[in-house]
Prior knowledge:
Blueprint: H1 5-14, E1 33-43, E2 46-47, E3 52-53, E4 56-65, E5 73-76, E6 82-87, E7 90-101, E8 104-116, E9 122-133, E10 136-142, H2 145-155, E11 164-165, E12 169-170, E13 179-181, E14 196-197, E15 201-203, E16 220-223, E17 232-243, E18 251-264, E19 268-270, E20 280-289, E21 292-294, E22 298-304, E23 309-315, E24 317-320
Parallel strand pairs: 1-9, 9-11, 13-21
Antiparallel strand pairs: 1-2, 1-6, 3-4, 4-5, 4-7, 7-8, 8-12, 9-10, 14-22, 15-16, 16-19, 17-18, 17-20, 20-21, 20-24, 22-23
Amino acid sequence: xxxxxxxxxxxxxxxxxxxxxxxxxxxxxxxxxxxxxxxxxxxxxxxxxxxxxxxxxxxxxxxxxxxxxxxxxxxxxxxxxxxxxxxxxxxxxxxxxxxxxxxxxxxxxxxxxxxxxxxxxxxxxxxxxxxxxxxxxxxxxxxxxxxxxxxxxxxxxxxxxxxxxxxxxxxxxxxxxxxxxxxxxxxxxxxxxxxxxxxxxxxxxxxxxxxxxxxxxxxxxxxxxxxxxxxxxxxxxxxxxxxxxxxxxxxxxxxxxxxxxxxxxxxxxxxxxxxxxxxxxxxxxxxxxxxxxxxxxxxxxxxxxxxxxxxxxxxxxxxxxxxxxxxx
Length: 328
């Protein structure tokens, strides 16, 4: 292999996260609960089924985050559309989903939390409903406990206790507002470009790797301002959740909200409270005029390397914090 390719390949591999899966279980595990439910996906009016088709195999995957982790596990939905996981006590999060048709993958953030109590033998999440229409998606839950509990008793006859019903806590709207308007629409006092839909970030600086490490755990955020002095800004920072489909790729979704600040009058903000060391973060800014807000700012990129290429559209801005917790 040419010398030039060796360090580049090593860099690409080092950025990957291990492939982790959460699988169907047939036998209960001591000290853990069977967490079960089902998924119903409707895309453009058609209910999806997960079978081999002439054009390839469609797959639907849920992304599950364990307590204290920043790496999601992948569960591939079976033909029946249900799932049965063996999970230890703690709070878990359904981070998002992937709908894959060959190399074409659609993904979305769901961020719904549930609790597995100590001593529980069975925990029912409900029927998870995902409605996708023209690139948009809605997520909800339907309670079919009586039917699901009967199936649970038949599948696990050695568990005498009736399964518990979990409360799936879905993330609500961020901040206060009465209406939203597309950030590239007229009237916001900014000019969108092929690269930036919304404001253009100045700090933290962006580079090809997208997650440039800042020098401080309390970084300063700056962006190019709107030409309208009546416009203010909202800043949102998410922790990044990473996952891998194959062990040779790294995917990312926005995770827990780390910080939200509303109605900032200047195009900058200096953090006072430190972020977590050694973490990747997404951030974005939206515009505000009273109780009307814009959509969040995003960017698009295309990068070509000697052995690989990547592209992304409608992505948030990224940065990473220093590893040392004593950093300024």
